[in-house]
Amino acid sequence: QSKPGIAPDPGDNAGFRRLFHRRKLRAFDIVRDRVRLDGLVPPPPAKTTTAAADGLTVDDARKLLRVARLEMVKSKLRDTGRNWMPRSEFVRICGEVCSDPDEASRVARTLDESGTVIVLGDAVFLKPKQVVKAIGGLIPFPATDPNDPRKKELDSLEQRKALIDQKAIAQVRRELWGGLGYLVIQTAAFMRLTFWELSWDVMEPICFYVTSVYVMAGYAFFLRTSREPTFEGFFQSRFLAKQRKLMKAQKFDLDRYNELRKICYPFTDEEEVESPGISFSSSRPEFDGKVGKVC
């Protein structure tokens, strides 16, 4: 066999054939046309655009989705109308909004950490304010100094407000007695017209239209005051109107009064603060001494 770089012997046919094939492959230049895979560089990864056409990012969309889920769970908890429920039921309600069990657990943990609910053991309290109020009633907190000038100012304002509320109640009662007298006179007049002056055929449409006017008045009362068109709702509405009018006439500083109430009685329930201070537990509505903010 011929060595590389040395011309083969002319009599060596095998050597000539190898040299011929080598020169023929060199003419094709396979090495030059070969695709070098080791030299290829992968293209840089495309940057994922998180911004949408309106400027809302994916993170913002996820945040809005979490907020929407929290609000849906809060709405479901409010619709139950309960003060507390077992923890298993609480997690189940969270799972109704979230398809992923892990997401439901995160929503429940977020509600607990944010103070929307209070989880104690296997019980979930849906109204933390009631729990705080109950704890405040059990723990002896230091009372306000009786010599504090703010306490004396509050006592003075409470006395003035009690007189204003009593006057407002008296005025509303007079209106209610006047309304009762009007209904009695109207009924007697309709009876007189039905059985003596006219007939039922004439009075029937009149009574129908009068009743329709009363229904429309009750509907208008509800639209204006957002209260049920009942005797109690009418009493509350008229009391607040009279109370505001008397406070304005006597220059009663209601903002200062509510501020002192929060300072001297920090654990007063907000629902109690916003109530007008009228109790309907007995047959006669009386002022129960509760202080309230005029709506």
UniProtKB/TrEMBL annotation:
Membrane-crossing segments per the record: 176-196, 202-222
Cell compartments where the protein resides: Membrane
MF annotations from Gene Ontology: calcium channel activity; uniporter activity
GO biological process, one term: calcium import into the mitochondrion
KW Cell membrane (keyword) present: no
InterPro entries: MCU_C, MCU_fam
Any Gene Ontology CC annotation: uniplex complex
Lipid bilayer topology: Multi-pass membrane protein
Keywords per UniProt: Calcium, Calcium transport, Ion transport, Membrane, Transmembrane, Transmembrane helix, Transport
Origin: domain of life: Eukaryota
Keyword presence, Transport: yes
Protein name: Calcium uniporter protein C-terminal domain-containing protein
